[in-house]
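Bench notes, bay 3.
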Amino acid sequence: MNNKPKINDRTTNQKQSIGRLIMQLNRLERQPKAFGEAGPLTPSEIHTIDAIGREGGVLMSELAQRLAVTKGAVTQLIGRLEAKDLVSRKSHPVDSRATVLSLTGLGMIAFEAHESMNQQFNDLLQEEFSTQEIEIFEKGLEKLIRLMS
């Protein structure tokens, strides 16, 4: 008797796994998470803080490109983050049409808390998976993202 899974069973399992992953990611996207003294932030907010924090200062238009969202979406996000005293806007020193974004002290606390959380996740991955498994996982994620784009 052949115990090999049928192709249809394999395809069904893959669809179910991808569906569960997408549902879990959607759930996570809606749930704010506390980042130290900065308080609860949505994933969109903390990833915006992360993108600004990595550069030290970034133009609104560059941030929109980096996050792959519209300038209008960035403007809304920045408005929320300014209201929480996490981000500040300043006019560009040379180009008066451009706005430079930077993190406030509280924004830096959120950025550092996010970095720490990412490091803990990476440590967990390294405990659970071999280096080869992590490389395969990363390649698989890149392909999945490309296919879903």
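Next record in the batch:
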Amino acid sequence: MTIEPSAPALPTHTGSCHCGDLRFEVTLDPSAATRCNCTICTKLAIVGAHVKPDAFRLVAGDESKLGTYEWASKSAQRFFCPRCGVHAYGRGSLAQLGGAFVSINLNCLDDIEVGDVQIRHWDGRHDNWMAGLRDQPWKIFAAS
């Protein structure tokens, strides 16, 4: 009988909005994240990661009283603090991401140095999702 080594447990991180009314815990590997050039992600400067819903726990703040934003595709809903306005996380479901997910804004984690995170880039601005991730940001404006 061979015993396979188990994968190391992922760390649990705490996060919050600016004022602290919205606080959460999330279990994830924060060494890699993504940025998207779509208009909402660009304007909010989101550095994101996705986890399964059971890896996320809202510690403070009633989700039904948080501000929400949902765009045309209705694939995800962002939650933000109604007091300070920080967009901390979102919930959605996409087959390409394995179904239900929670997206985390790594800028809201209390113990992560985002400058040390490897960031890969999506081209959401041009609905170019199937091109996948790449190391360099996609251009927002087409070359003239």
